[in-house]
Amino acid sequence: MTGPLTPEDPTPQPLHQPGGDAEQAERTVKEVIRWYNARLAEARENGTDGETIDELRAAREQAVDDLDRLEDADEDETVQIAVAYAARLKELTDS
Question: Is the pLDDT of residue 15 over 70?
Answer without folding.
Answer: no
